[in-house]
Amino acid sequence: MADTQDMNTQGGSDAPFTEQVKDQVKQQTQQVVQQGQQYAGQAVDLLSTRVKTALSQQKDHLATGVTDLAQVVKQSADDLRGKGLGSLASPYIEQAAQKLTDFGTTAQQKDIDEVLRDTEDFARLQPAVFVGIATLVGFVAARFLKSSGQTAASA
Predict the structure, then answer these.
(1) Predicted TM-score (pTM) above 0.85
(2) Most buried of 16, 32, 37, 81, CB within 10 angstroms?
(3) 35 and 105 part of one domain
């Protein structure tokens, strides 16, 4: 009977120790989870910043390209008018050049968050047109990449 009593006493003294170990493990686990969440949040922030920077640079390149294209279109309209061929089409070509210039200027002035918001709004309002434009851009990009690959392979 004394042995039974000793075991109960020892078992009883182990219970607070076991609970203490459980609490310590639980606290350490919570700390590790919090640190993991913090590191993941920092990684997402860093990635988001880098993606936005890259998108902003590409937006600026696009805006410059569109503005340059507008100048070429306007020059073409002037050339046609100078040769007497563009009297009918010249106003439409100039209007297209002006629209391209406006788009390029707007793209240069907006930050990438505004451009993304505008794109999302347009996609919600005109989903069919957005899908059509996205498909067209995809085809153009594929052709460009394909021709770039052939040029690099032949060089």
Answers:
(1) no
(2) 81
(3) yes
